[in-house]
Amino acid sequence: MQGKGRAVCVGEDIDTDLVIAGRYLRTKDHSVWVEHVFEDLDPSLAPRLAGSVIVAGKNFGCGSSREQAAIAIREAGVAAVVAPSFARIFFRNAINVGLPLIECNVTCSEGSLVTFDLSEGWVEAEGKKCSTHPLSLKMQAILSAGGLVEYWRNQR
Question: How many Å separate Cα 107 from the centre of its chain?
């Protein structure tokens, strides 16, 4: 599974409350989450996410174990999130909702083209290629199906 997008750079320790604030969780309307994704971090971020790759620092997705954070990022049109490390529950939530995550320490500038291959296990930005462990075949199948629910529907 390959992909690409322009880098949207965020810092480290981005918790799920910064991804989607609790005040927006009273609705299940994903368009509301997309409109307000990362609002408390940077109110101008949401409109720049479509087609992007989020490049983050360590411990992305820490905090509350809300799957709405991963859904909001995916629904905003983000191709993948790249970070040196992820909170484990966020990692599983993201894969389960069909949001690709790549554990790799990438440094690049805002707007740089980022390409990746989940099967081979690499990310490239600004001419530098970073190797990472490829996702398991099962995780790749879940992502290809669009998430865990769709994966299981296809198993029937």
Answer: 16
81: phi then psi, degrees, rounded to nearest 5: -120, 130
Q: Which two tokens stand for residue 58?
A: 């360590």
Question: Distance (Å, rounded) from C-alpha 145 to C-alpha 153?
Answer: 9
Place 133 in a pLDDT band, splitting at 50, 70 and 90.
Answer: confident
62 and 13 Cβ atoms separated by less than 8 Å: yes
Its pTM stands at 0.94
The arithmetic mean of pLDDT across residues 15-30, rounded, is 94
Residues 6+ apart with CB under 8 A from 106: 55, 82, 114, 123, 125, 128, 130
Count other C-beta atoms under 10 Å from residue 93's C-beta: 23
Q: Which fold has domain 2-154?
A: Aconitase; domain 4 (3.20.19)
